[in-house]
Amino acid sequence: MRVLLVLAMLLAALVTPQTALAQYGKSHRAKMNSDPIRYAKYLDRAQTKEAIGKFGAAARSYRRAVMFAPNNEECAKLLLKEADCEFLSEDWSSSYGAYARLLQDYPLYTPYDHVIKRLRTLAGMYAEGEIGLLGIKDHGMAIKIYELMLQEVPVSKNAIQDYLRLAKLQVEMSRRPEAIATLRQMLQHYRRGADLEEASLLLCSLLVAEARDGDGDGRVIRQARRELARFLARHPESARRQEAVELQVETDEIQADRLYGLGQFYVRPAHRRLPAARRYLHDVLRHYPDTKAAGDAKKLLVSVWDDTEVMATAEPAVGSAASADVRTNVKPASTPKIVVPPRKFIPLAKRENVKKWLVPLGDINDLDRNDDAE
């Protein structure tokens, strides 16, 4: 009998849709425990306490009334009242918890404008150190609140500012990859806005910093160059255009250092591949002639190959259009072909002892004959 009961419970758990469980959550139990008498008693007590300004006691009464509410809509209204009373009583952590439950458990009955405004206020107070002991800034809690807001409501009136504040807090907490992901998500959702210029430039600077710390296959530096090109194309009259140009110069330095490192690697005796090393070093001179790595590449080419003539053709002249624009593609210098002289063969008549190599056709299969070949 017990085995059948367990099997029936497992079958019911499999048949019940997970979406329905997620929609009801704790409110499903509250609906099952509905008690009109207790509900009216706690609701009246909470309203009385709220009217006289005892917001802490009112929040506790609203919390008890939620347990006996008749439906989900009433649960959402009471939970909102509880969160507001805890906010007014300066019970910040409990207020955040109530707003989070409201967003996650009752999305159909949540007044998003009001809740997001209160959560934004809480996040700002945590970030500025207005909440907590001795005025210590709690950036971790502020990040948690901003992430909840943008997860539940990714598009809203002031969401661009929320994304930007979240990214800056993540940078201050040394969480650069998370900040990059936040800014990318923001730029996917929004194409126009007052703060998009700042967000785009911040994304470029973070990508450059990430590539500077270590970029194995060069993927991050290529992303940084694409973002910088996109920023310069979208904001041609920006007051911060010079910052983007300086970041572009820095990307050239990073890319040149990377190519020079590869060339230097293949020059070493343990990994010696001189054609590959020469190609990487010439790429530095060809594409990034104004960088510090270009001078190092030139010295290495001279020391290993004495390649002064090829370098002179590969490097553009100072002041030319190719040297002014580091992205200009210059055709590689053609490597001179090695001309092999034709091989000279001595005529057969002039060789010595010609007859000893001539075997009559009739004697090929007769190996026992001792006669000399004629």
Describe what this molecule looks like in 3D.
This protein has 374 residues and is mainly alpha-helical. The protein has a domain of 92 residues. The protein is 66% helix and 0% strand. Helix 10 runs antiparallel to helix 11 and helix 12 packs antiparallel against helix 13.
Secondary-structure blueprint of this entry?
Layout: H1 2-15, H2 18-24, H3 26-32, H4 36-51, H5 55-66, H6 72-88, H7 92-105, H8 112-128, H9 139-152, H10 159-172, H11 176-189, H12 196-213, H13 219-234, H14 241-267, H15 274-287, H16 292-305, H17 308-314, H18 321-324
Helix pairs in contact: 4-5, 5-6, 6-7, 7-8, 8-9, 9-10, 10-11, 11-12, 12-13, 12-14, 13-14, 14-15, 14-16, 15-16
Keywords:
single chain; 374 residues; mainly alpha
> What is the CA–CA distance across the termini?
111 Å
Strand content: under 5%
Total strands: 0
Q: Taking all residues together, what is the mean pLDDT?
A: 78
Please state the CA-atom Rg, rounded to the nearest Å: 39 Å
Structural class: mainly alpha
Unreliable runs: 13-32, 308-333
Describe the structure concisely for a colleague.
By secondary structure, the protein is mainly α. The chain has helices at residues 2-15, 18-24, 26-32, 36-51, 55-66, 72-88, 92-105, 112-128, 139-152, 159-172, 176-189, 196-213, 219-234, 241-267, 274-287, 292-305, 308-314, 321-324.
